[in-house]
Automatic annotation (TrEMBL), chain B:
InterPro entries: ACP-like_sf (IPR036736), PP-bd_ACP (IPR009081)
Protein name: Carrier domain-containing protein
Domain Carrier residue range list: 1-73
Pfam (any one): PP-binding
Organism expressing this protein natively: hydrothermal vent metagenome
Amino acid sequence: MEKLQEIIAQKEVKGISDYFTLYRRLNKMCKEREPSYDKALNVAILSSFTSNGIKESLYVKCCALGIFPKIYVSEYKQYTQEILNPESELYQSSPNLIILFIDAMTLWGDDFFQAYRRSDESRKEWVSENRDEIESLIEKIKTHSSAKILVHNLAVPEYSPLGILENKQGFGFFEATETLNRKLREVYKTDQQVFVFDYDAFCSKIGKQNIVDHKMYYIGDMKLSLNHMPALTDAYLPYIKSMMSMTKKCLVLDLDNTLWGGVIGEDGLEGIQIGPTPAGRPFLEFQHYILSLFDRGVILAINSKNNFEDAIKVIREHPDMILREKHFAAMRINWDDKISNIQSIAEEINIGLGSLVFLDDDKLNQEMVRTACPDVLVPVLPEDPSLYLKTLMDIDDFNSLHLTDEDKNKGQMYAAQKRRKEIKKTTTDLSGYLKQLKTKVTIEEANPFTMPRISQLTQKTNQFNMTTKRYLEEDIKALAIRKDIMVLSLKAEDKFGDNGITGVAIVKKGSERWEIDSFLLSCRVLGRKIEETFLAYIIEKAKNEKAKILIGSFIPTQKNVPARGFFERLGFCALEENREGCEISEYDLNKDCPYPDFIQLIRKD
Amino acid sequence: MKRLKEILADVLEIDEASITDETAPDNVDTWDSMNGLVLVTELETKFNIKFKMEEVTSVKCVGDIKAALRNHGVVFNE
């Protein structure tokens, strides 16, 4: 895989032909010898016209990200047949992502040019017919494939035979196209498998006048000019990055000339630029947008070369600052180098360097961090602060396919974590610390509201995870309805805030013998006796239902060392180690298992 | 001509020195109909011109491309 990335790095990619050239080179290499990779993605592209160029640019962009792609493109205009036939090459390519690119001209046919030979009624029929058609195609795909489906909406036309009277019609040409888009959005709003790609917004961004190269359209039925294919695939990437868990979680910010204009050490509190003036507004609005990222769950941190007292005074006291101390999960305001600061921020928050984005106006700092920590995303911040906001808005790495309540609160949770650590520093003994935290734990069986988060935790928790079994939302749903299986979620709160659902246990209930299939806890609540409380609850449940023995197993992985020996510490007796290295232990349910002190347990049975 | 040859060599992945006026889809494997359109896009971008549809459809060899470029005011120092 590194080899492929090297090839891309060597070539300066300027125009569409570079993507074609690189694609041929990479593809040839991969055919000779399949590269070693840990991220692979099968994509199928179904389109209603000649979409050459998508495959080539998507291939190159995936390789550049370290993803090994296999891309299948349906035969010209054959997408319906491919979708309907369960034996088709589409399904045989076992796609993880299916892109369905149907365009307005195809759906309108000749009526695209003569939309008003249809009546209002007939245009309404056009909407419902096409909606049904697209919906039934997607339903068909769903029965044969569990791939994520990305369906394009339609570019709303920019000309009408009626000109300025277009929006005076009962049910006009534009309105019909917009209505179909709206219906698609409504149908798939809560769908976890289908995502509507806003192609209309994409075209507006490029400029609808520039979308088509008319001679290419007549020569090759190309309804999107070749030049725009790389931009289109860029717009697909947030979906792909989210699917591959390659998204960023934390935004690390410089202060002087990044969050405000000027240098606090020289200009002083009154001299820096932030607030409702022409020079201050770019920073003001930049901060507003950063706060909205915080509200969708992005963790914030500071990495600034400054006297701590000078800088913190701005954050605490400047009347126009939007971002305050409570928004930052980690602050490095010192004279250390930016690289060790960024490494210690990652350590403090307990996330990988690959989850960080670093924004700093200083080109030298950018380059230093980029070179020393290649996993950190370091965007080029333009010299002109009026372009900061746009630069940040263009970063598409904070996306996710689902946004659970826990995700939305993540920024706050991490900032609260910082305050927790502060009292831990001042309190020397653990029980004194726990007493101060006033932890409240809520345990309940899985329900439709908690299932997405339960599945997400089984997918993402690596460290304190006894068996590291991964479950999709569908799997959790299927387990939860079974009488002989108990799926539990654990929610933790303390005086600093709500951590949300951070623990999951799945227990198989036999008549006398219960078995823990999964037991995990997010590492940010670990070490506060919450895990002990959770296990004590399961033991109590098993005793109440007259079970005699509780079995726990530990399957070692590269990452779950923190979980090793947990069951034994709580009084389980080690039994055996089977061939796969799985360590089994059992708990004699005649023994009592006391709940830890200072934790309030709320049972929602 | 230097720039044209560079572009041709780049898009078609052939040796610059091998390119003559007679170079054509018939004697270059990589010059298929799709790559022909890529070539058009590339030439238009690099020379900052727009071909007419008829110019694109009537091109049979490199000599024809040169003629079309000349029509758009591109000067070759041969």
